[in-house]
Structures are given as C-alpha cells and as structure tokens.
Amino acid sequence: MNFDEYRSFDALGLAGLIRKREVSRAEVMQAALSRLQAVNPTINAVPYLHQPALAPDAPVIGADGPFAGVPYCIKDLHAPVRDMPLTHGSRLFAGQVFDFDAETVARLRRAGFVIIGRTNSPEFGMNVTTEPALHGPTRNPWNLAHGAGGSSGGAGAAVASGILPATHATDSGGSIRIPASCNGLFGLKPTRALLPYGPHRGDAAHGISHEHAVTRSVRDCAAILDATAGPDVGAPYFTQRPAERFLDGITRAPGPLRIAYTLQDFSGQPVHAECRAAVEAAAQLLAGLGHHVEAATPAFDYDALFQAVMTVMMTGLASNVDAREQQLGRPARADELERVTHAAVARGRGVSGTRYVAQFPRINREVRRIGQFFEQVDMLLTPTMAAPPPRLGTLSTDTDDLDAFIRASFGLAPFTTPFNATGQPAASLPLHWSADGLPVGVQLVGRFGADAQLLALAAQIEQAAPWFDRVPTL
To answer: For the chain, how far is it from start to end, CA to CA, in angstroms?
Structure first.
C-alpha cells in the first residue's frame, strides 16, 4: 500500500479494506509508519512510538471492531495508556507511566484501533500552539513556519500530514477545535460527560475538560463517538447517548434549522478578515441548504466567565503539580516547568477555598444566559479562531507575565472556551483557506446533548462543500 492509496481512505475506509482482505493490517501499519518516518522529523507531531504495538503480529484487541487494524495515537495529556508514558508535555512528569488504560482508551482498543504512540501537547495544554520545552514545537503541515494549534497540535499535524486518518484529542478551552481549524480538519468537542472520564478522573475540571478526536471525515468522527460514548462505572454524572447510532444519524439531512451567526467575538471585538470571510461564506452555504440563517449573538459577560474558568483551571493545575511533587518527594525544580507554568501554579496555589467555590455561581450565571440564547436557535456559527494560525514563537511560554500570555493566547481563540463552560457540543469545520494557503475553520455550536444533530449538519455541509481531498503537500 503506497502513501497515496493510504491517504485516499479515512479510518473506516482503511478498516473496510482490511476486513475485505484487500490489504493486510501489516500493510496499513507500514504505510502509516513510512509516512511518519518521512515527515515527523520535520513536523514533530508524534514524540513517542510504542514499539510493541508496531510489530506485524501485535494482537488487535477489537479484531471484529469497526476500526480493526487502524493505527491511532493518544494525546500526551490526561489519558493514561497502559505501559506508555504520560508527561502532559512537561519535564516534571517525564518518566510517568501507568499500568492501566483510561476507559476511553480501552473502548478505542475494543473498536479495533491499534494504539501506536503519543502526540505532542504543550505543557499541561496551556497554549493555543504546541511548542513545549520537553518535546519541541509541532509545525503546521500547511506552512512549516506556523504553529499547528493547541493543545492537540500534535494530533492535528499527525492527521493533516497523512500519518494517521484520525486520532485522539482533548479540549479544555478549545484544544480540539483550534488544531482542527489550524490544520484543515474536522474536530468535535462532544457534550459534557457523553464520553467517560474515568477511572483516573471523576469530574474532569468540573466538566470543563472534554475528550474526543480530530478527523478528516465526519463519518469517522461519528463512528468513533459510537465506539466511546456512554458512562463508565462509578461516573458521578453522564449525558445519555441517543438510541440511534451517530453514524446512522449522519445519513439523513437534519431538516431546516435556525442558525445564528456572529462576525465579532463575544466582547464585540472584530476578527481577522479571513475569519470573517470564512463565516460569511459558511452562512451563505447554510442558507443555500435551506436553513434559516441570521446574525445574532448570545448576551453574556465573556470576561467574567473566562476569568472564572481560568481560576478553576489554574487551581486544578496547581493541585496536579502538588500531587506530582508529593509523588517525587521533592519540589519541582525551576527547569522542570516552563516559566509561564510556574506563574500559573503560583497563582493557583494562592486561590483560597472560598474563592475557588465562588467561581461556580459566576460560571452558572453566564452559562444560564448562554442557554437562554439557545432556546431561540438550534445552532450558532462563529469563527473558530480570531486569526489564521500564528507563526511559531508568537506565543512564547518563556515569560513570567501570566496575564499578558493569557490575553495573547486566548485573544487568538476567544470563541471556544464559553462552550467548555456550558458543556455544549461544538465543532470546527474546514471550510476556508486564507490567501496564503492556511486553513481557517468555522465553529458550529449545538444545544446541550444535540451531538447527533450537529453531526448531521456537519455531514450535510461536508457533502455540499467537501474538504477530504484538500491536503497539504509538505
């Protein structure tokens, strides 16, 4: 199987070839590894390969699963994989290995995926570009001088460059959707607690953190969700999956929907002309598909919501670092955390218990206001980012000015974090490329629990404006 043949199929397509014995699992694996060997030294998307999984005779747990024999990676953040390192992109966690699979990983294995390694992540996912000191920067396959987004930048670059047809990603503030936008991919952040968090986490950042995937096709996204959705044992809460498979639901058009769109961020600030053009074109496309499309924006206090979410996240980060220090029996050394991470940990440690708890009424107030907006519309269309992918080095973590770093980082991505707070499903679709050839995604946000409707709409758009064959040449 040569590379052009390999890249012409999505994950379901490759699995279908294996199932029909038109190619072997070993041939698919070799195609993936050959591509990785050719491009990974340049883009730096996959810092770790798990050698036992690469052998031609390596067992496939889900031999009858929908993705049997297809290679897959897990992001180097949040998700334990048995016998594989999990560093969170941080030198402090170098050498950390777990003896179990996270439930989502176990379900991916049962679906037939062969877990071959880890994709690159910024330290603790704290950046909208992937440039950790531990593993070095991930480069954008569309333009190597630019970043691949964050924090699932390694995942995005691995799929866009053709190493993998789809792969795991996580999202606590846009980290699935931002790399999808930067790399010309489809990326869905599912509804809160539709996927399992455990067994290592119960309530992941109070429901702010999510997991799923970046893919080249909508159907792969739907089928992976079919394989992973549903509560695990002991879950503190969960979102019920629909009776119908997500993969079946995308075969039908969603019917006429009420879709609002905005051309400014939620503080009323303008966005880059390419991002504005992307939304305007998408709005015209949706209207042409029979949907009712009009300009409207949810009214809420973005700054208050964002600051509350950041306080929760930094307190969680400090707790994570504290636990690692207790495990090591010593404080973190200065060279084991990036400068901006030291500043974030210090701030998180300074949050009192009463101040921490006070963030949740603030989040609740703004989330309820956003929810009221979705009583009037089915979907919201926004830019995914406020500008095209930035050049590498634009967002350096070598700074003690935490506030300036956060402003710069999330100034590039002001549209994503509110829907981590609300827990609503949100996806980035690759519908626009800038004049200089960089991908510019648009975000669609659905009502809480309406993942099937959002996927059906995405599939309708994919059919009307296909993107699968638009790939970087590297």
So the answer is: 20
